[in-house]
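Reading a protein record of the kind used here takes only a little practice. To see the layout at work, look at the sequence and tokens printed below.
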Amino acid sequence: MKQQQATPQRPDRTSPGSLEDIGDVIDVEQAEAALVEHYPRLVRLAYLVLPPGPSRGRRVLAAHAVVQRTLPRQRSSTRGLGLPAQRAGTDAAIDPGYAFVRLRVLRAALAAGRSRRWLPVPPAPFPQVWGLRLFPRSGGADELALDQALSALSGPGRAAFVLRDLERLSAPETRRVLEAAGVAHPRAALDEAERATTPAGSRDRSLLESPEFDPCALQARPTDLIRRRQHGRAVLTAGAAVLVCGALLGMPGDGWGPDGAAAPPYARNAASEAALDPGKLAVTSATAWKNAARQDFSAWPARGDRIHDKALLRRALAVWARPGAGVPVSATPGTPTGPAAGPAQLLFAGVVDHVVVVLLHDGLRVVRYAEAADGEGQSDGTGAAVDFARTDGAAADSASALVVSRTQGNVRYLTAPWVKSARLVDLVKPDAPGARLRIRPDGTTDPVPTPQPAATCTTWPALRMGGRLLTDLGELTPARLTYGTPRKPGEVTAPRARTAWARTACQLAAVRGQGVRTVNSWEFARQPLPGSAGSAAWLCTRAETWRGPGSRTMAQIQTPAAGGRRYAPGAVAARAEGGTACGPRAPRALAGVLWKSATGQWWLLAAGSSKVTSITTTGDVHGQAPGRLLTLPAKSGDRAQLQGRLANGKSMGAVG
């Protein structure tokens, strides 16, 4: 074992560089080379700065038009723009032409936003696409939330946001670029961008660089076919118009027919057709769960104000069976995304947070279909999305809630019919009683904040439904948290259990998106610390998945909190993926860590679970201790290999 110190990494400055790198004169050829080389990046910048227009397609064309018209007609001087002279040394390699063209793109995008003149008529200088609508690929809930957040900003605010978080300019550089672009109050624009409420991933470029905001990776769909046919009648004969439109409307599986965003049919057989028939969906009555032999998802009634909308249900089933190329599909690890083997069960159909949501269950999986509530995208797939989560073997303790909506850092749940009340609690504050969470008549909850992992973890929202404790790990099914021995875990209700989870909660970020079903935390030992420094608790936390394989195990030591932070996170001693350690098949653990006392002395601390009778260490630290606790003097950076002896004479290694 070797103590490691984490060194925070500074985000790399993405070349091309800032305005400080521009020379006095830019040739047309130099500007053209920069524009061609960095065209996708410039178009993305223009697309993000432009305000939301009549449609995403118009905004795409406007972004391309802005960039293509920024090429200067002759050599241009940078004097008078407030731009410092070009640097020397290593910074001289940064392309000054890019920064110059970027400034012109920014000016044009801000001007277009002020005038709201998207595409003049006739738009001869603009890019033209006749008979097709072009738009970027749709992203997920986080991309939609970020787009809504940017739409709420002013033009200068969007420009400041993009320069800071996409171009990676510093605050002073951003102010100089905004001033050169003609922004009257650059500091106010920067402040507005900083105050914007955005989802996780917005500030590290992962969302800004997603296909949702890439005007160069486009999808194509036909324009309004009826209007085109009416225009065609004015210039073509009636027979030719009927022939052309009949051919268009007769194309099978073209993406805008009755199946919505579904791809062309892949098979024609009785089983497939039964699974696609909304009339054959299983619908459980509102009281069936009271007499059900097993309380799981099969006992949930169908809820929501759209459960009788056959057209909606048909689209959901068709897209599930064969999602089109423009439909984002996500699935937890180990979850198949194929069609249902037969008629599924309807759990929910309704409008939640301006999105039409359908939840279906086929015994193995829960499927969430979503489309835009205003109807946009229902006919071409741009507003549809499908999510899959494995739920086989679910029981009452793991079938209490499902995620029905995610928007701007919040999540809404659909609760089981047997859940009558819920409280929003903070795992990091175990002494706080929490707040009552309203459950609506259709079973959906009020918005619940989603956990936001950060370097300084100060809060971790969770739900307490009855005695069960649930938390969101970025999937359709919330994970259930328990405390106790691996073979008999219990609810997180006792003070010791709540305290242990308060110091463990922030480690849950490591298992987000892994298809986690339950997470159990088990205190397997307590060890007195040298120098009368109190005692430390050794815990083993194991995340079990719905699919079986892929479990994650973590051993940690929780020493007395320093600096007044009573519930400071524990120190992770070891991690393991897979295996049986700390699980019901092998309910035992062994872990060690280097610990520094208040006097500056380093110690090797190790502890095992109750069946460990002795511990031996080799490597930089040699020694042996009877029983299940070991304390030996050590030096910073020492490595040690631990071996434990069990009561039955067998040996075991440390976790990890």
Notes: The mean pLDDT is 81. Residues 18 and 99 are 6 Å apart (CA to CA).
